[in-house]
């Protein structure tokens, strides 16, 4: 069942709607049309994502709270890339690099919406040259919640010129509840034996490291608390985890399993993407109060951003993010929750 309500208005007076997806078991997901953001995800009475109650609080933060990120998730080195010898220049909104589609990326857009049976369809057409990217890009993101408590996100896009693309969702999860305040009490397993090494600006250098014998190894379940403060160069550089794990295998497969030790809630993430950025909110600085008047400190949530490799437009041995003119980009990610 899907309901629609008014959520509020943006500064420039655009209407923002809130859609409530509810299954028969009473699991509820709310999505707002601003940024196509997941505003809440309530399972057995526990709201497992950080979020805000007011449009102005979404507009005042730059943490990409719950939002669809595009055109290109994560960093593009120097804010520049080439397609067939032609150089494109993007805004540098993260030190020397371009991050998450720019200053006015997909997270800032009010998406057009439509409901079909049990799915919410969001649409945004990004004009040619927006934020520096080539091609008019027609984007559709479909949210659906099933009776097994799985929230699926499907991404579709088409461009009229060759372009690069990397779409994801930037929800901050806390399986012990959005108000819990810290993320350490999670057990985590990531089905990845390699990750991409970062430089001091969290940009992949091109080197691929194996996780073995390092605190990046989550092949077997690990307590986050034990690992997140280890003295490992990559964790020190990122002030915590902020890395791209290369998930083993191909096609739609299980990426990871996370468990909130207080709530007992387990979440499994499935995707057909090549990789996932786990970001432990190391730099989260939001002044606005979150839902229920709660303040969200650093490291109070975890993002699991299923994605293509960051900086892949500039690194030839990474899977190519090129979307040819007229070709259909299609990706899917599912977050499924259970209790024990
Ligand atoms: C990135 C972080 C960045 C954050 C912004 C994450 O996806 O990996 O480096 O600071 O988004 O909220």
Structure explained in plain terms:
This protein is mainly beta and 340 residues long. 5% of the residues lie in helices and 44% in strands. It is globular and about 55 Å long. The mean pLDDT is 97. It binds beta-D-glucopyranose (BGC). Beta-D-glucopyranose binds next to strand 25 and strand 26.
Average predicted confidence as pLDDT: 97
The parts where pLDDT drops under 50 for at least 5 residues are none
Instruction: Give me the secondary-structure category.
Output: mainly beta
Per DSSP, the total helix count is 3
Give the bound compounds. Answer: beta-D-glucopyranose
Approximately how much beta-strand content do the residues carry? 35-45%
Rg for CA atoms: 19 Å
Largest sheet: 9 strands, antiparallel
Shape: globular
Strand order of the largest sheet: 11-12-13-14-28-24-23-18-21
Intertermini distance: 26 Å
Q: How many strands?
A: 28
| Quaternary structure classification | single chain
User: What is the percent of helical residues?
Assistant: under 10%
């Amino acid at each position: 069942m899907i309901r629609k309500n008014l959520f509020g208005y943006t500064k420039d007076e655009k209407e923002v709607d809130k859609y409530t997806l509810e299954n028969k078991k009473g699991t509820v997901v709310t999505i707002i049309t601003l940024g196509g953001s997941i505003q809440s995800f309530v399972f057995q009475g526990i709201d497992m994502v950080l979020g805000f109650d007011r449009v102005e609080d979404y507009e005042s933060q730059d943490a990409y709270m719950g939002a669809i990120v595009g055109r290109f998730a994560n960093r593009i080195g120097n804010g520049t890339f080439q397609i067939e010898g032609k150089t494109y220049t993007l805004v540098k909104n993260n030190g020397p690099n371009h991050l998450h589609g720019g200053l006015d990326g997909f997270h800032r857009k009010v998406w057009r919406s439509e409901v079909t049976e049990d799915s919410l369809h969001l649409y945004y057409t990004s004009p040619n040259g927006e934020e520096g990217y080539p091609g008019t890009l027609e984007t559709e993101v479909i949210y659906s919640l099933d009776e097994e408590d799985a929230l699926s996100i499907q991404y579709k896009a088409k461009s009229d010129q060759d372009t690069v693309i990397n779409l994801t969702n930037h929800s901050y999860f806390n399986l012990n509840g959005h108000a819990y305040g810290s993320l350490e009490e999670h057990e985590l397993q990531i089905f990845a034996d390699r990750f991409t090494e970062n430089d001091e600006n969290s940009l992949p250098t091109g080197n691929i490291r194996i996780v073995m014998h390092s605190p990046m190894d989550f092949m077997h379940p690990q307590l986050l608390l034990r690992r997140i403060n280890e003295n490992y160069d990559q964790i020190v550089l990122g002030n915590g985890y902020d890395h791209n794990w290369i998930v083993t295998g191909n096609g739609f497969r299980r990426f990871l399993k996370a468990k909130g030790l207080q709530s007992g809630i387990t979440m499994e993430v499935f995707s057909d993407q090549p990789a996932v950025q786990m970001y432990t909110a190391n730099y989260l600085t939001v002044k606005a109060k979150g839902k229920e008047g709660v303040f969200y400190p650093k490291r109070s949530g975890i993002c699991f951003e299923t994605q293509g490799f960051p900086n892949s437009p500039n690194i030839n041995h990474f899977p190519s993010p090129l979307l040819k003119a007229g070709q259909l980009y299609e990706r899917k990610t599912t977050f499924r929750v259970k209790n024990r």
